[in-house]
Amino acid sequence: MRKYIYVVCCFLLTACDSLLDVVPENASTIGNYFKDEKELESVTSEMHSIIRSYFSEENAHVFMGVLADETWFDEVRNLQSSALDEGSMYVDWKNHYDAIYLANLILENIGNIKNVEEERVNFHVGQAYFAKGLLYFDLARRWGKAIITKNTSTTSAYATSPTLEVIDTAIANARKAFDILPLFEDMKDISGNKSVVKQFGCKGSAAALLAHLYAWKGSVIDLYKFEGDSKKCYEESVDWATKLITKKVGQYELAKTPSELCQYLSDPNVVNPESIFELMLDPYSSSWPTSKVLSRYYVNWPVNKYAQVGDFPYDYNISFYLYNETVRGLYLNKDERRNAFFYHFDEASQPSSEEYTGYAYLYKYRNGLYIKENNSAGETFVTFNANYCYWRLADIYLLRAECYAKLGDSRAKDDLNKIRERAKADAYPAAGDGDLQYAIFKEREKELIAEGHRYYDVIRNGYFKTELSPAFSRLSDDDVQDGALFLPISSTAQTMNDLIRQNRYWSKFF
């Protein structure tokens, strides 16, 4: 029966080009097949599988914001419309709505489940709310205005809703997830075993989602002059971050050193105490593993055991390059992240070294994953043997520091120095720090390098004219208000739904 449910769900997700526009007539009847938890589990797992694969795919925003001295993605980073929509980096939101559809399916039909303990019912309901909160949050960040679906059976087309309404929808769902989900330490799988998987929502990951949601909401109110109280939003973000930092919502703690952090990040078989939410590696997904960590685009040698150092500057598998001078300027003096995050940096950055190429070798994730192929080695390096740690406690410390700084609260410095202390970096204020908010932004850049956050960090702080490509510096205030910082809505979505309108900035190109 589980296989049957999976097939039915796949049919529902592919029976039309967009679930935003046409819902199959038999969609609402699938609840009749939720006979036991195993069948419900298959839908919950499929929902998380979509999240895992989509959040680790190429996000144009992430590539726009990645710190790099050289890249193969100049067109995307320079806002060239030819690289978006049907170009080299697709910007479709269909997968978001596929997963939201499954979340709604669970919520609408959970009452049909019989002989399942309340704790297990709450688990699946909590996963559905968490998924909706996460997905609407990401829709708001990527596209601003987005569609808010009502249920699985409405067949009429939807128009997009305003950005703040999308964010508030995400907040409402995240709060419901927080209320119903257990602590990670109390999570159990369907067999009653203690969960070691941080892909699923729990109280801690819901709190991290809410901390980011409120920080984002406050920043867009400030940036776009929306109606709302940004100060209150920053205070809410601080409160949710504090719950995580003070262990009120789970036993999360910082790794002791940057090297220990890298060891945790590089091993999918251990529970990383700093990690709050992860996209779990699936090495058996079709012929190509998911999820791929962003750092993969910086790395071949030395993680790939078949690569050679001389190949590095010319390796087509590498999309982003950092110069030694850039890394040396980021991690000053005794900062241990320089040699933890970058392979043999102090030695390999010297022209006399056999490992010298002028480029730094990112080494945050250290173990390669290979697939069998018909070549001389019999296998090919494809990515890291690692989960994608999406949110971790250091991120939350620095997010709280950022919100404190925006509120004029001196405790921002304490959170910033907590992360610097672990790295044995100079405490704030140190040489070249500048103002506190900018120092916190730069600390996030250093601590979270190649983890996919930098574009959204830039936007939250309003630094897009100075911290992104020159194309962003040329944007006028009107361009920004018209939606230049969001992604264009794909032409496929517009074709299938004539109520959808491209934002004003991108309508000039599509």
From TrEMBL:
Residue stretches spanning the membrane: none
Manganese in keyword set: no
Positions of the RagB/SusD domain: 340-506
SusD-like N-terminal domain location: 56-183
Recorded coiled-coil stretches: none
Keyword set includes Signal: yes
One Pfam family named in its UniProt record: SusD_RagB
Subcellular localization: Cell outer membrane
Keywords: Cell outer membrane, Membrane, Signal
Classification via InterPro entries: SusD-like_N, SusD_RagB_dom, TPR-like_helical_dom_sf
Signal peptide range in chain numbering: 1-20
Primary subcellular site in the record, as a coarse category: membrane
Family: Belongs to the SusD family.
Record protein name field: RagB/SusD family nutrient uptake outer membrane protein
Organism whose genome encodes this protein: Butyricimonas hominis
Lineage of the species this protein comes from: Bacteria, Pseudomonadati, Bacteroidota, Bacteroidia, Bacteroidales
